[in-house]
């Protein structure tokens, strides 16, 4: 990983909201951003902290988690390259509602809060892209709530596996992947207990849908898995 990447050379740049900036302003972004390599387990920000900057994920994976009713950690989602992190509480004038933690070596660019606000005020296309991202996140949250409340665990698990599969880089090869988080976090993502998820994965294995070895998953019957996810 490069420690100081230029925006024009960043493969994830076009995937994120900053792709809406004109070429001239992208060069300025190189001057105002700060790049940092987070190792697995390092924290970008903690739940309850005041937002002072916005983060853009160039490489790696970031886990977003929140404290449960009894102080336990509940994983909400796993973010990949192109994600913008921490912008919603900044715009709302609220503390961070969750904690962001790297689960693998992750190259992250940050922009100070006031500079980010200045970009939004100065470039309507960026503001519109931010609104689109907010709307998408709201839709995803609503869908996740519906899934956790109404859908059976096998369907939730199938969708989670397909999400990991579909989020790989293009041309990644055979339908296999390695998850960067423990089984308990995967269970939290679909709102079930780790034991229930383990039994479900064992059922998938016996049915010939996939092979699981630790954190390595290999899909054997993609069509059947998609049919299960679609209900």
Can you give me a brief rundown of this structure?
The chain is of the alpha+beta class. Helix content is 42%, strand content 23%.
Overview of the structural elements:
- This protein has helices at 23-32, 87-92, 113-122, 124-150, 153-166, 183-189, 194-206, 222-230, and strands at residues 34-38, 43-45, 53-59, 62-67, 73-79, 84-85, 99-102, 106-112, 176-178, 210-213, 216-219.
- The protein has 231 residues and is of the alpha+beta class.
- The chain starts with 22 loop residues before the first helix and ends with a helix.
- The mean pLDDT is 88.
Highlighted features:
231 residues; alpha+beta; four-stranded antiparallel sheet
Order of helices and strands: HEEEEEEHEEHHHEHHEEH
Average of per-residue pLDDT values: 88
Rg (C-alpha, Å): 19 Å
Q: Report strand %.
A: 15-25%
What's the arrangement of secondary structure elements?
Layout: H1 23-32, E1 34-38, E2 43-45, E3 53-59, E4 62-67, E5 73-79, E6 84-85, H2 87-92, E7 99-102, E8 106-112, H3 113-122, H4 124-150, H5 153-166, E9 176-178, H6 183-189, H7 194-206, E10 210-213, E11 216-219, H8 222-230
